[in-house]
Amino acid sequence: xxxxxxxxxxxxxxxxxxxxxxxxxxxxxxxxxxxxxxxxxxxxxxxxxxxxxxxxxxxxxxxxxxxxxxxxxxxxxxxxxxxxxxxxxxxxxxxxxxxxxxxxxxxxxxxxxxxxxxxxxxxxxxxxxxxxxxxxxxxxxxxxxxxxxxxxxxxxxxxxxxxxxxxxxxxxxxxxxxxxxxxxxxxxxxxxxxxxxxxxxxxxxxxxxxxxxxxxxxxxxxxxxxxxxxxxxxxxxxxxxxxxxxxxxxxxxxxxxxxxxxxxxxxxxxxxxxxxxxxxxxxxxxxxxxxxxxxxxxxxxxxxxxxxxxxxxxxxxxxxxxxxxxxxxxxxxxxxxxxxxxxxxxxxxxxxxxxxxxxxxxxxxxxxxxxxxxxxxxxxxxxxxxxxxxxxxxxxxxxxxxxxxxxxxxxxxxxxxxxxxxxxxxxxxxxxxxxxxxxxxxxxxxxxxxxxxxxxxxxxxxxxxxxxxxxxxxxxxxxxxxxxxxxxxxxxxxxxxxxxxxxxxxxxxxxxxxxxxxxxxxxxxxxxxxxxxxxxxxxxxxxxxxxxxxxxxxxxxxxxxxxxxxxxxxxxxxxxxxxxxxxxxxxxxxxxxxxxxxxxxxxxxxxxxxxxxxxxxxxxxxx
Length: 623
What we know:
Layout: H1 4-19, H2 23-36, H3 45-48, H4 51-89, H5 96-117, H6 126-169, H7 177-208, H8 213-216, H9 221-233, H10 237-253, H11 260-264, H12 271-287, H13 300-305, H14 312-335, E1 370-375, H15 381-393, E2 401-406, E3 416-420, H16 424-430, E4 436-440, H17 447-457, H18 463-479, E5 493-494, H19 502-515, H20 522-533, E6 537-539, E7 542-543, E8 559-571, E9 574-583, H21 590-600, H22 603-611, H23 615-622
Parallel strand pairs: 1-2, 1-3, 3-4, 5-8, 7-9
Antiparallel strand pairs: 6-7, 8-9
Helix pairs in contact: 1-4, 1-7, 2-4, 4-5, 4-6, 5-6, 7-12, 9-10, 9-12, 9-14, 12-14, 17-18, 17-21, 18-21, 19-20
């Protein structure tokens, strides 16, 4: 059952789905306003007359049409536009919120009508019935909009604007940041931005020419300041190296989702963006700042583009001030942060899927033709992630399509789905049953993406190991809070062993894990049980024995041991010559899994693992 946060996120995403495809119209209107109104950059009385009608009529019709289309296709688009026009003419207020209601409502009604009418429409008169029904139902909805929805939505806008003004009068507007920043990190940015602030801000622009509402959620400063703290002060090497790229993507590209994982892995750091936004809002209130249109995406370029001519310098100061405060407040939390793994065990075989068990070989390179990166709206971070990943694999796999989509609208032919941890549950509900899931922490430098690249670019014979590494990395990201450098050592390797059967070999690996202090003795039985449930053999002469999820309480610390059996151990007709016993806390052992997959991708190296006679050579082959 969906959580309250998921329900709000879905609702916000639906509202955003009506606004985002039409954001170009908002930008055109914003530029018209910024350039040609009386206080604009190049005032033009004639062109300024376009501003009002575009806002009052054109944009609401576009939004309502998109809402109708989302529910009922092209017929929904037409009837949505008809219905909202009544609401537009029934109120003096801009009907953006009215459009978000009338469009989907009209689409739903015509959809239900069509489902009912399909059973009795006379043969040869289908088009006549379709057209007349759409026109008459649309007329009825327009009348309802004129007398009911328009005045009702106008009253709601009056109440919301009064609330905003009360916050300003009481000096409490900056405190909105306490709610805005945590909501953004929970991927509710579209709900609060497009669903609340844009309608209020648009109405304010109509009356005063600008609005602070457009600055509250989209200011790039708070996120940039926090990322800068990671880039300068973070002690975790991988996180520190990924932060500069994230800064560029957020500041210039306006993709705020890029910094959400940096907060989620270190929640205390949210105080930095909150403080930065509080100061920015306070500065804006004091100097009466505002934008003439939505800054979407929330980049510095969009911010300046939507700034009134007289406020450009002050708005730049506002962004810099937000970044500076966020940096200094975030700094101590970033400096004290050390990435650590969680207590979640990593299942090296299990695929994170849309609701049913998936064969771990399902992600074999030859079977993968489409990868879908999914985010909340399907337009920001997922688009960036898809572009970056395609560049990584296109030289070897130009046949693979890498696309981006909303987590609620994943294509039915997707073979692999990549999404961030916070959106995984929503994505599963919309995903095809056979798709392989890859859950990531961030789009910049993620072990699950590295493993997926290996999976897709190794030859078919090595797919078992590569898929296992991808799934292990994905599961670790979903259950772990960070990454700690870790390596297999000489004391973790045992060569030239002999065992009579697979259970004896697995128990030998377990005994070595116990001896090394990685697990309690009870973990060994769980390793045997795990192999009985699903074979731990992953192909090309290698098996990775590990415990069940229930046995994770017996793991003392992360550890991987390697045992070589030159004569081979039978796994249902397959011979395993090297067994890697795994005890995992978080994702600390993923580097070793990646090395295993990399070694298996080269047959010469894989053969050497079976035959080397000294530990130093074994570790050298493993990398």
